[in-house]
Amino acid sequence: MDIKVLFDDNFNFAFKAATYNNMRVAIQTFEQFKKKNEDFFSFDKRETLFGHLRTYAVEKQFNDSAFNPKANYSVSMKQVNNYKHKALCIETNDFIVNVGRTNSEHQLLPASAYKREYAKANAGLSTQLSFDFLNDTIEVVESKKYAEITYGYRYGDITHLYIVLPSSDYKGVEYSTNLLEDIKIYENYVPKDLVEESIVSLKKSLSKEIEKII
């Protein structure tokens, strides 16, 4: 199957709506939490802490949303280097997806060894062996492709939000979709009371994260 067809198949309306609303919940939670704790964040090094907490809010929201019975994706934390750093990986039927902030539209996340390795599968047919121990057989299956959810943030607002397909050499974007084009439709996809519940829950998680830091 053509990789662009596969991309559109995996990142359908439901996935796009869930992605937009996850970002909406995460950023609103972060902004409300920041405003409520203005005194704590008055120190000059607050920007470093802001970046950590915003990333935490985004990844925690994607993680929690995956447990919704209607979610068409799963999540896992994968160790990606020798320093025991773990990255959130969102998985659909055919893709592994990372999420993170970029400075501009159509820009990839900062390059790293594991992202380059994942992106190699975007070259075309990439296979691996799958072992069926019950039937004692070996099956050749296609490796999962790689995509990224990239967003921009400035003065409390999401400036851009894309799902992008990196080139196999991780030097550019082969294909992308802009999630800010249909936000009204996506907002109606998730009930307002569920959004509020998610914000309340995420605020509690941010408070616990602050306790760990200090």
Descriptive account of the structure:
- It is built from 6 helices and 8 strands; from the N terminus they run αααβββαβββββαα.
- It is of the alpha+beta class.
- β2 (86-91) and β3 (95-101) form a beta hairpin.
- The termini are far apart.
- Mean pLDDT is 86; it is low at 127-134 and 137-141.
Topology:
Elements: H1 3-10, H2 13-36, H3 46-65, E1 74-79, E2 86-91, E3 95-101, H4 113-119, E4 127-132, E5 137-142, E6 145-154, E7 157-166, E8 173-178, H5 183-189, H6 192-213
Parallel strand pairs: 3-6
Antiparallel strand pairs: 1-2, 2-3, 4-5, 6-7, 7-8
Helix pairs in contact: 2-3, 2-5, 2-6, 3-6
Number of strands: 8
The neighbouring-strand order within the major sheet is 1-2-3-6-7-8
What proportion strand?
A: 25-35%
Number of DSSP helical runs: 6
Largest sheet: 6 strands, mixed
Radius of gyration: 18 Å
> How does the helix and strand content classify structurally?
alpha+beta
Write a brief caption for the model.
This protein is α+β, with helices and mostly antiparallel strands. It is 41% helix and 27% strand. Strand 6 and strand 7 form a beta hairpin.
List the defining traits of the structure above.
six-stranded mixed sheet; single chain; 214 residues
